[in-house]
Amino acid sequence: MFKAILVDDERMSLEVLAIKLRKVAPEINILSTFQSPEEAVVGIRQLKPDVLFLDIEMPLMDGFTLLRQLEPYSFEVIFTTAYNQYAIEAIRQSALDFLLKPVREIELSSALQRLEKKRHSQQASHNESLALSSLQFNKIAIPSLKGVTFVPIQDIVWLESDSNYTIFHLAANGTPPRKLVASRTLKEFEQMLASAHFLRVHRSAVINLLRVKEYVRGEGGTVLMDDGSEVEISRNEKKGFLEKLGL
């Protein structure tokens, strides 16, 4: 899940927070805890956490000063303090959350859920940028649970929807057909490939028009792709398909 560092000058507060964190998120990895802000600065630079749980009022160095010493930083910050007058400054620091002591488990759980959503959003944005940039090289980046696979666009025969996933039907010259499952929706890939020779012919299918071998007439009809696949064309998409082929 997340790698976390906890900073608070009160040992009891650190111990209680760590216990509550492990209770609401057993998979969280608490890298270290620090009572000394000065030691925390060194530890944070070395350990590179995903999220920092940070007290504000501490001797010698407050939480805001600690953050300024770490700028620029990529981790998220969740402030934990007994003083609500710091809320406005916490907002200015772009904190993910501001929790008043004693921190309640329900608030802690909510903050972690917000962190998870933000991370997923950032990852999705990164994947989209990666996919779009790869199109410039006639390849598309296909994210999966294992990583990202770069596939030449001409190798894509058709794409099939499977709930929130997309199945790529691939066939390169001289190689057997294969499938690749991507952890994104068909609609997202349809938008990425809109400028190429791809067309949605069914609510669950997008085809590469350059890989169509034969069209069989019917209510909507069926296309035979050059990898041997048969793809149904919906009645609603038939007109657009025929127009694309000049029929």
Quick structural gist:
Residues 140-247 form the HTH LytTR-type domain. With 247 residues, this protein is α/β, with parallel strands linked by helices.
Q: What are its keywords?
A:
about 250 residues; 15 strands; five-stranded parallel β-sheet; Rossmann fold; 2 domains; elongated; alpha/beta; about 30% strand; OB fold (Dihydrolipoamide Acetyltransferase, E2P)
In round numbers, the mean pLDDT is 87
Q: Please, how many domains?
A: 2
User: How large a portion of the residues is in β-strands, by DSSP E?
Assistant: 25-35%
Shape: elongated
List the SSEs and their pairings:
Blueprint: E1 3-7, H1 11-24, E2 29-34, H2 37-47, E3 51-54, H3 63-70, E4 76-81, H4 87-92, E5 97-100, H5 105-135, E6 139-143, E7 148-152, E8 156-162, E9 165-170, E10 178-182, H6 186-192, E11 198-202, E12 205-208, E13 212-216, E14 222-225, E15 230-232, H7 238-244
Parallel strand pairs: 1-2, 1-3, 3-4, 4-5
Antiparallel strand pairs: 6-7, 8-9, 8-12, 9-10, 11-12, 13-14, 14-15
Written account of the structure:
This protein is α/β, with parallel strands linked by helices. It has two domains: 3-124, Rossmann fold (3-Layer(aba) Sandwich), CATH 3.40.50.2300; 137-244, LytTr DNA-binding domain (OB fold (Dihydrolipoamide Acetyltransferase, E2P)), CATH 2.40.50.1020. It has helices spanning 11-24, 37-47, 63-70, 87-92, 105-135, 186-192, 238-244; strands spanning 3-7, 29-34, 51-54, 76-81, 97-100, 139-143, 148-152, 156-162, 165-170, 178-182, 198-202, 205-208, 212-216, 222-225, 230-232. Strands 2-1-3-4-5 form a five-stranded parallel sheet, with helices on both faces. A five-stranded antiparallel sheet has the order 10-9-8-12-11. A three-stranded antiparallel sheet has the order 13-14-15, with no helix packed on it. Helix 1 packs across helix 5. The chain is elongated and about 80 Å long. The N and C termini lie far apart (53 Å).
